[in-house]
Amino acid sequence: MTMDCILDLRHKLCGQYSRDLGSFAQYQANQLKSKPDQLFDTDGQTKPAVGFWAYWEQCIRLRDIIFHKIGEDWVFLALLGIIMALMSFTMDYVIEKCQEAKIWLFEELSFSLALQFVAWVTYSLMFILFATGFTHLVSPQAIGSGIPEMKTILRGVVLKEYLTFRTLVAKIVGLCSSLGSTLPLGKEGPFVHIASIVATLLGKLVGSFRGIYENESRRSEMLAAACAVGVACTFAAPIGGVLFSIEVTATFFAVRNYWRGFFSAVCGALIFRLLAFWFKDEETITALFKTTLRTEVPFDALELIIFAGIGVACGLGGSLFILLHRKIILFTRRHKRMSAFLQKNRFIYPGIIAILISTLTFPPGLGQYFAGQLTARRAINELFSNITWTTGQADDLEEEAILRHWNPPATNIYVTLLLYVIMTFWMGALSNTLPIPAGVFVPVFCCGAAFGRLVGESMSTWFPEGIRSGDVVRKIVPGGYAVVGAAALSGSVTRTISTSVIVFELTGQISHVLPAVVAVLIANAVAHFLQPSFYDSIIRLKRLPYLPDLINTKQDAWTVFVEDIMIKDISYITFVSTYYDLQELLTNSSFKSYPLVDTPESMILLGSIQRFELERLLWLHLSSNQTLLNDRKPSSHTLSPPPSPGRFRKTSSPSIVRKNSSPKLPQPIPRFVVTKVDETGTEFDGNLDEQDTIPAEPERKEMKQKLHHSLLNLKDDTDYHYDTLQLPLRSILKKTNSESPFLSRRASTGDLRMDGDLFYRDLAAKQRKESIVEDVPFVFKKTSMPESLSKLFKVVCI
């Protein structure tokens, strides 16, 4: 090749195309500049926006500058804290007004005791029934605390519909309604769930934070911070909220997430207390339950023994509370008839519990003996008061009201406190089994405070002059015992140490920091040996896919190998397994899934198959009237269908045995045959022989309930043949609304699979064991929302 050819080729490859592209780009630029109504004006600059769009562009530019200088994480966390503070303050206001309305209604009907009782009971009943119906109608996932589900989600498990807008609405409305009923329920757990939902929706809906939502690791970090914000905005306790979220929701906590949770919790707690100051609820920014306990030498060293005893008692009490809650739920599960009845009539159980608790707390009745008219917040304020009730001396009207509540004429302080502890204890456990949004922290907090107050008042009676230590005599402070008891019992139930820190932030004093920490540690140690935490107990009851904590290693743990604890004789499926093998596998085992291996010799794991899929596979292949040849040797018995679908058991005789007069092997019947259906629902089977037909089946609904398989019909000495009863399939030729029992005997593959899917969906729903606290959908017909709400209000009114 000559030099001229090379230059010519180079010119064609490089020079010519470069000049063409350059000229084309220049031509396009000139065309854009020549059009005045395009994006560019004569100077080549974009047209400035006017009016609203000008302000919008400035806001976008300011947002970009803030995100660039500060970072989207800081903005996201601050915005999350502010939103949750606004929501918490608004919900507290609504709940407080609902509770005050109940007291106002009771006082206005003072002229009639009967009307007072009816109003007291009906008020709580209406709120509980509304919370039950609204929660089931909008989102059943809003039932319960929410912390067990958040623990599961933060472990990496995806729980559908738990972090959606529908769940947020159901949680907020249901929580306000349930707490407004004045039943012994808490706010902390549900509000942690609410904060997690808000964090998820912020990352999903706001375009600037979408990167947080799409990144799985960052999303988990923000959810952990949201849990801290939920606790901080409930009690205005940022430090305790962060520690509580770490202890409750996380098994392995990344230190890099600590500043996120702390920053967001501080923002939320600060705005929450500022709102109370701005709306004149507080004179200044103070603690939520401000106390005036003695700060100079608040306790004697000898009192630490009593505080340790409170820790032991609270550890036992916390374990008993968890056990009682679990026994109530298991009691309803074991009685299948009662459980089925309560699931069909969902308003009966909440209504009975609401009527029972409201009747017992009726102030002129039994409620006068354990301060039944007090709300949880007011009871905590009075239990933390810095006066000694046993002296009976009040310096002002507020102290006089406290003594009137806890020292009624017909009894004394000790009986009142003891009854309050007992009644709040079992009513709190019972109320947390209701299918409504509810927490457990506040009831056990009140119960522990009352128990500590009981011990403190007893100590002040036994030592009226105080405890002498050398030449110094220090009087007993019963309010300090109440603070220690509240921290110890709530810590033993939730299995956290941070409750001691939450108590300090709630009261605004750290004078009893050492007794509280000692009591909480002892209570946790005692409860740890007896019961799991309240949230872990709910996880086990709901059977959530949650990995438990690692067991404590022992000195000889290094000598234990995996083969010592593994299951060696397992059931598995291979590529050469027959339908008979699958049937035997399902008959002799009850596992939910089975491993799939290559061959029995190699045992190479290829995957797993759910039991549901195997049952569906057998049902599809054994329901087509097709002869299936099997390699198994014949036996003298046949397998008959089980009494309920979804299981396979051996019996002595088949349900249908078909006689075969021909000695030769039968030809396989076509699997799907389209048949003609007339107006009356009768069918024509084409070329089928008379001996191969099956008698007409009963009605469709009865067949759905009594559906079963006929298996393994013996036709000769060498082969097994499978046949089944006729299935109620729909015709693919004609649509009809009639409920005729003579529908088409065969249909298309899609029709068969569709019926199979519907059947097994119903079967799975019937076989699922659910309790009253699990997320069971509230079933309504396909009607509009106004019609559904009208039905709900009619039921509530009745």
From TrEMBL:
Gene3D superfamilies: CBS-domain, Clc chloride channel. PANTHER family: CHLORIDE CHANNEL PROTEIN 2. InterPro entries: CBS_dom_sf, Cl-channel_core, Cl_channel_volt-gated, ClC. It is found in: Membrane. Residues 630-671 are annotated as: Disordered. It is a multi-pass membrane protein. One of its GO terms (molecular function) is voltage-gated chloride channel activity. Residues 651-664 have a biased composition (Polar residues). It comes from the Eukaryota. Keywords: CBS domain, Chloride, Chloride channel, Ion channel, Ion transport, Membrane, Repeat, Transmembrane, Transmembrane helix, Transport, Voltage-gated channel. This is Chloride channel 2-like isoform X3. The lineage of its organism: Eukaryota, Metazoa, Spiralia, Lophotrochozoa, Mollusca. The keyword Phosphoprotein does not apply. It comes from Octopus vulgaris. GO terms for cellular component: chloride channel complex; plasma membrane. The chain crosses the membrane at residues 74-95, 115-138, 191-210, 222-246, 258-279, 304-326, 347-366, 413-431, 438-456, 476-498, 510-530. It holds the Pfam family Voltage_CLC.
